[in-house]
Amino acid sequence: MFLPIPIGYFVAVFLMVSGVLNCVEFLKTHEEFSSRAEMLNGLACSGWGIIAASVILLLIQINKQLESIRFAAADTTPTPFKIKKPKLTQAAKPTSTAPQSMVRQIYPNSPIPGGNRAPQAPVAPPIPQPEKSEPGKLNYFKVD
Fold this sequence. Notes:
Shape: flat
Radius of gyration: 37 Å
Number of strands: 0
Helix content: 40-55%
Low-confidence stretches: none
Distance between the termini: 74 Å
Mean pLDDT: 76
């Protein structure tokens, strides 16, 4: 992006100057306006270069910010998707001298590093019970 940014600034300055000069020329040559709408319409038509220059400057700023984000992300990105395997300590490893009931089982699908958690049954949330309506009183879901 070494060359497009200076060229973009040059084009933006050119459009800005030509837009301002066109607006000044429009105000000098037009003798009298019949309404404000006619004047504003004429200024907008002759000053389109100002709008185009502001859009170009906005796009240049967006480009610079995206480029800086890209460079910052490239500098700090370690090797992605590299999964480290957890190391088991001596306390977590089962020993052959302990009785079978005291050995902790290791589950490979456990979310805890080391896999020392036994699978548990999922707990279902309680089902809400509808409120009982009193006779003679209107209910939202049922009209008595």
